[in-house]
Amino acid sequence: MSSTPSTAVLVVVGAGPRATGLLERIAANSPELWDGARELRIHLVDPHPPGPGRIWRHEQSALLRMNSMAEDVTMFTDESSTIEGPVRPGPSLAEWAAQFSGRGPRHTPYAEPADPEVLAELRTLTGADFPTRRAQSAYLDWVFRRTLTELPPSVTVEWHRTTATAVTGPPDGPQYVHLADRATPLTADLVVLAQGHLGSTPAAEHRDHAAFALRHGRFHLPPEFSADADLSGLRPGEHVLLRGFGLAFIDLMALLTEGRGGTYRTEADGTLTYLPSGREPVLHVGSRRGVPYHSKTRYRLQGPRPPLPRHFGPEAVDALLTEGRPLDLRCDVWPLMAKEIGFGHYHELFHAHPERTALPWADFIAAYDRLGWYDDDMAALVATAVPDPADRLDFEALDHPLDGLAFPTADALQEHLREHIAEDVARREDPEFSADLGAFLALLSVYGQLPRLVAAGRLTARSVAERLDGWWHGFFSFLASGPPGFRLRQLLALSRAGIVHFLGADVRIGTDESTGTFTATSSTVPGHIAHATALIEAYLPGPSLDLTEDPLLRDLHRTGALTEEVITDPTHTHRSGLLAVSPTDGHLVDPSLGSPHPRRIALGAPTNSRAVAAFARPRTNAPAFRQNDAVARVLLRALSTTEAGTATSQVDGPPLRV
């Protein structure tokens, strides 16, 4: 054997922000863990450009925007990050954009985006703006190119603009990553799957609706990523049912109105009026809650940042894990989560708006800390200390705002919901209610603590199914992942113009063979039936290994080389549709081995790590950043000890350069 060290080879399937974040952590940890005498070649496999990947690619409608302010988006670790590797700060999207207007320093490597519309947006972008997805695409492209410059000379990256279709190879030998456009696979020492959010083939209900639409010449769209959806089959004036009132609906709303030539006019009182083009369909929208996601806040904290976590941090999780019994999320965990969110809310209220409180903060927090969230004394404490009910945190009212309400006519519901939406937007844009932002930050903190509790396997199967993957995921998105306020003002204008109609809560979709129409009913307007010739499932595809459109995962699933997360206890079995990985380092659980596969790792949305956000709000100790760092260190250690000659680099072209 030659004394010259062989080249170590890593293949990363997927080149979007998750893969970029992993590369950034490889670059950060290389000075400590990588011997520069040996070469490391990294292959990225993705048909979409590295950095943005598919979801954030530039080639999508300029109407589509982020639901975060520019100052709240970062790809970089900071002082809040609890990681073993080095913290390497970098600019947020807003800080990066400031260079193009001269308001901030230039960031290496410097290059203006080629799209003049994106460059014009970046030159005027402020931290409080909600950028287009194309602007985020430019930022992610820059992060990727910066990361390449930070890799040591012995580490090179090559991008294969194609799709990975399979990975084969023994657990103790080379891995072969098969590509759609070439006969010879890539040979690797280790493989990382980082495909990001994946599409799914339609489930049984959606196939039935598609068959109905085909029989009657109607339009049907199953769950789909909005940027990929083909909406050309919808006719002007056609009545369309949309099931789902979250961000997918907001995107579809924009594409089917402004995207078809409609415009908005701002009136003297600040309200919007929609001016139709005549090419819009008529949209009837409803969901389980019957209301849109809460508007994103557009202000900063008015008081000091709450010191999080306080009630649901590592110590609280440790205590739960030592109880030695199955845990129910709602009964055992939620009271601590709720108390943490409440702490964020009241910390901001007492520090920023003390005139609306009736106790000194020290007295309030001393009592708050010792009481349980559902204690009668807690309710009495809050009622005494916070005189105005509008300043109190009421999860039940937030979660189901239409519960117990019934309207005699659909028109009466329209008026009620327009008032509800207008009040929500006004509150989320008024810094007098900045306690809502304190609660939001605590929500993010709680979210970051949950993966370790889930990974320990202590939650009951029903609790994971109904509470974690069901209620909690929806509740978190409803409160924390809503659209910008301007989108909801547009929704109000569309409602007033008769383009959008609200269906209410607990929407049920049916079909009427006699008329060839889809139907929708809701408990909010008893007896009312809406008919339409089109149905759109206005939400993203859920995780499903059985239905995944990703050919590599589909092949691994078919051949029994991966494990779906299945949680079983004496009363329930939950199949999450997620890829089972080891909690500490993301290695695939291989059923043929009965243990994690030593050479295959998976990260992000398709996995049961449930830390899906590839980028994050600054100073929130993002779970994905922690995972990226841990996995990068595992990879570097493993690759540095791989025997020479295990894998050989197969080069289609020169490594990527900036």
TrEMBL record:
Residues 11-197 form the FAD-dependent urate hydroxylase HpyO/Asp monooxygenase CreE-like FAD/NAD(P)-binding domain. InterPro entries: FAD/NAD-bd_sf, HpyO/CreE_NAD-binding, L-asp_N-monooxygenase_NS-form. Pfam families: NAD_binding_9. It comes from the Bacteria. This is FAD/NAD(P)-binding protein. It comes from Streptomyces coeruleorubidus. The lineage of its organism: Bacteria, Bacillati, Actinomycetota, Actinomycetes, Kitasatosporales.
